[in-house]
Amino acid sequence: MKAPSLQQRRLSDDIVERIETLILEGTLKPGERLPAERTLAEEFGVSRPSLREALQKLVARGLLLSRQGGGTFVSAEIGSSFRDPLLALLENNPEAQRDLLEFRHTLEGSCAYYAALRATAPDRERLTAAFDRVVDCHARPPGKVTRAEEGAADAHFHLAIAEASHNAVLLHTIRSLFQLLERSVVTNIGGMYPQGSDVRDALMDQHRELYRAIMDGRADDARALSSRHLLYVQDVLAEAQDAVRRAERASRRRAPA
């Protein structure tokens, strides 16, 4: 009996696989515009018709979005697990803020651990740039830097650690939460800084130690430092909330006649 012939794999399928890998590993980010067809075909060493066929397949799968006369983009919906209405609910709920810190505690410790083990030279460059942004914000007096700027720098530093982990699931989970993470950091800063200037300095020291542990390849230390940092944030915020509750109770007490 003659065995059926195997169907030859199309070149466009290989291109699809390569682009999917770039999206999965985070090289191509949600919302990012792809290079022009001619440039991309040259980079892949393929013909433009084969490339065009691959792009059409990816558009059909919802991974890419083609805009007439505007180019081809990675779908912004990739990893968008938390949308604006839910973001608002989570952002304004104190219990949800605590839940997010607990979730970050679990997630970011693993990111730091794997980043210390796996970071490449380009990863280290991006991480250093993100850390320098944190340092720059800290060097400016509180009145000369906004909470939004400090929150963005902090969040991008933690995102750079996730990128350096080379774990696609960790990275895309962090990215899907990034907007919530950034808003949460800004909220946390607002709750922590009134507790004293030493809080701001302590956070900077913690970020510095975490950065150095990852750059030195000390994986266990990196995970421990990440956990210690988030526990500190939880403790300071809990103390701030307790202070608010004490003040509210005091204000409700009537002065003696």
UniProtKB/TrEMBL annotation:
Top-level taxonomic group: Bacteria
Gene for this chain: pdhR
InterPro entries per UniProt: GntR_C, TF_FadR/GntR_C, Tscrpt_reg_HTH_GntR, WH-like_DNA-bd_sf, WH_DNA-bd_sf
SUPFAM superfamilies: GntR ligand-binding domain-like, Winged helix' DNA-binding domain
Protein name per its UniProtKB record: Pyruvate dehydrogenase complex repressor
Function: Transcriptional repressor for the pyruvate dehydrogenase complex genes aceEF and lpd.
Organism: Thauera humireducens
Pfam families: FCD (PF07729), GntR (PF00392)
Every HTH gntR-type domain range: 9-77
GO molecular function (one): DNA binding
